[in-house]
Design goal:
The chain is α+β, with helices and mostly antiparallel strands. 32% of the residues lie in helices and 17% in strands. The protein has a domain at 91-202: endopeptidase fold (from Nostoc punctiforme). The protein is built from six helices and eight strands; from the N terminus they run H-H-H-E-E-H-H-H-E-E-E-E-E-E. The protein is elongated and about 65 Å long.
Length: 206
């Protein structure tokens, strides 16, 4: 190697070779990661409506889907008290609750009033098959045609065993019988119907 080449090399003809590569700071890397993640999140959510109750995403097939956002968790399940037995109520009404529970399905079939009618007839609470077709009409027919009494009960969980609960709103209705641990119609549930409660009725002993 000639002396001139050695001089050029030592004088820095190729300074990049001797330049020290700066190291990235951890904070910079973390910030860059957050920016990328935020951008990806916004891009993935494009086309979906913002919601405080649901998280929107696309499933593996590219179809839009959503999941409810759970903000509270109770480690202890909510347990409602057992229904009380009112001695004034005809024992056949409690038998009707048992019959309805034996015939109930796991899920509703949209035939609540039909199943309640059959249970009332089978237990001998009523002497004929009620004629009304809609659940919201059940209370009036039970009172006028079968001697039921409207109880001063506003909380479904306070209704006595064997009583008939009628719910409804402008477009829908529901009828169920209070059991010892829940409510029954064409299906059995531990929880009351979510429709507004119209009234609670019972056949009292004469």
């Amino acid at each position: 190697m000639t002396s001139s080449l050695q001089n050029r090399l030592s004088a820095g003809m190729f300074p990049a070779i001797k330049t020290r590569v700066p190291t990235c700071k951890p904070f910079f890397l973390l910030s860059l990661t957050c920016v990328i993640a935020l951008g990806a999140s916004r891009a993935g959510a494009a086309g979906f409506n913002n919601s405080d109750s649901h998280f929107y995403y696309k499933d593996p097939y590219g179809r839009p889907s959503s999941a409810r956002i759970i903000r509270h968790y109770w480690s202890v399940p909510i347990v409602h008290p057992y229904a009380h037995v009112d001695p004034r109520i005809n024992p056949r009404s409690m038998r009707a609750a048992t019959i309805a529970q034996e015939r109930a399905n796991a899920r509703s079939k949209g035939r609540c009033w039909h199943y309640v009618k059959e249970a009332l007839v089978a237990a001998g609470v009523v002497n004929s098959y009620p004629k009304t077709a809609y659940a919201a009409e059940a209370g009036a027919e039970l009172m006028h045609s079968y001697g039921f009494t409207r109880l001063s009960v506003r909380d479904p969980y306070s209704a006595p065993v064997g009583s008939v609960l009628v719910y409804g709103n402008k477009s829908r209705g529901h009828v169920e019988i209070r059991t010892r641990d829940g409510f029954v119609s064409d299906y059995h549930s531990k929880n009351r119907c979510f429709y507004p409660l119209l009234a609670v009725y019972a056949k009292l002993s004469s």
